[in-house]
Design goal:
Helix content is 58%, strand content 0%. It has 2 helices and no strands. The relative contact order is 0.17.
Length: 81
């Protein structure tokens, strides 16, 4: 038995859990961040970066990326066991 295997009492699961679980930021935080980035680009680079479509597309991309990265980190965390 390795260090991370747990002995379960009757009625409990015997699976061990990673010490930490990575979670992506909430959708609200990602949307606020995307809006901030687009506003900054709109003010300093080009106004077209601050359109609704660009803000939504950036937020959608960041949501997908954040979920994938959290999944990747959790997979690697499990492999350390």
């Amino acid at each position: 038995m390795n260090d991370h295997t747990q002995t379960a009492e009757p009625g409990q699961s015997t699976t061990s859990r990673p010490e930490r679980e990575y979670l992506p930021p909430s959708d609200e935080i990602i949307v606020r961040y995307a809006n901030h980035v687009c506003r900054e680009f709109g003010q300093s680079v080009d106004e077209s970066y601050y359109t609704l479509e660009i803000r939504q597309d950036l937020a959608d991309f960041l949501k997908i990326f954040a979920r994938m990265y959290a999944k990747h980190l959790n997979k690697n965390e499990g492999e350390k066991l």
